[in-house]
Each structure stands twice: as C-alpha cells, then as structure tokens.
Amino acid sequence: MERLQKVIAESGFASRRKAEELIKQGKVYVNGIKITILGTKVHGNDIITINGSEIKKEDKVYYLMNKPRGVISSVSDDKGRKTVVDLINTNKRIYPVGRLDYDTTGLIIITNDGELANILMHPKNKVEKKYIVKLNKALAITDLQKLKKGINIDGIKCTPTKLKLKKNDTDKDFSIVEISIIEGRNHIIKNLFLELGYLVDKLSRIEYGFLDLGTLKSGEYRLLNIKEVKKLYDYKN
What we know:
single chain, about 240 residues, alpha+beta, Structural Genomics Hypothetical 15.5 Kd Protein In mrcA-pckA Intergenic Region, Chain A, Alpha-Beta Plaits, Pseudouridine synthase, nine-stranded mixed sheet, 6 helices, 17 strands
C-alpha cells in the first residue's frame, strides 16, 4: 500500500504538494468514497478519481528545455499565451518544475513525475540554480558586497551561494552578473536587485543543480537519461 498523495503524484496528475491540496479540498475519491485525510493509504487496484476523472499511472518522462522569452511556465494560460507544455510533442500530462517568469529564459525541467518535482522544489533539498543577469546600470562594488552578505526580502534573508561580476560597463551603464541561489520564491532574483535599486533587463537560468543547457537553442528540449534522473533523485534529504 502507498500513500494516496504519492500515487496521485506518480500518475502525473499533479505534484505531491498539489495532490495534498486536492485531498484537503475534498476533491479526491477512492472507490467512490471521499478522502480528506492526508496519509491515507491505497492499494494498486483501488479506483482513484479527482473531480470525477479517474487517474491512471503513466510512464514517467523528463524533459530539459531552454525556455524562450514570452512563454508561460505553466500547463495552460487563461490569456491564451503559449506555454512550455505547448512546445513539447507529447500526449502525456506533463507540467514544469517550478516557474520562470514570462520574460525570463533558460533551463526548465518538465515532467509528469510529481515526486521528483517535489524533491527539486523543496527548500530542504538545497538544489542550486544559476542565473545570468543583465542590470539596467553598472553595479556598485558596495552593492556587490551587500549581495554577498545576503539581502532581506519580505523579512527573509536570501544569500547567494555563488556570485560573480562578469562585466561592469560604466560607459554604457550596465552590468552582467552570474548568481547562484537555492531560493525558490517568485521573482526572487529580480527582487534581490530591486532591493538595491537595480532593474533586471534580461534574466536567464543556465544551470539547475548539475544540469546545464549544453547546446540547446531557445525553444529546444531533450529527454533526460536514466542516470540524470537518478542523480536528481539523489538531492532528496
């Protein structure tokens, strides 16, 4: 027997966190009985329905994409904008691990493995993400030192794990910064620099854990291999 939220996550219907929300909302039924208690265990032959739809276990798929600018990191968009899922040729129910902003480019993982998605997004597992940032003006050295020590965002300190000033053009008044963080809060990179008085003109994620973009061009994607998937699971603490 396995926990209900794990079975839902493994079906590809939703991440484990989302599955827990659905259970608490009373939207999950097992053999016709509403389940609202987290941790309920089910058998492999139990019939599980969510909002009236029966879930079925799917083979796991794992994609690494170089997300283009102007694409939503979501399964669907109420404004009709293109999503990362739209760019992948599959009939499986997949979703992105975390989010990149509409105007942010770079590495994003897309899968139907809710358990892995939960591992990668949970702060305790400390999965490092690296970004290249172009700022709207030259970065003062004093502000660089402040970044290294950490910046409070909404009362919570965020300290980069790595920080490198790649270019500081005082004539054209812009900077290129390479920054790595473990944080996963929305807009966290933009907010770090905004707190110091800088706007982010361009932002791209170039690494996620040990994964990088390699030769992938904007909009291109590839399947992760078994070794890569196992290594991602190794982040679990």
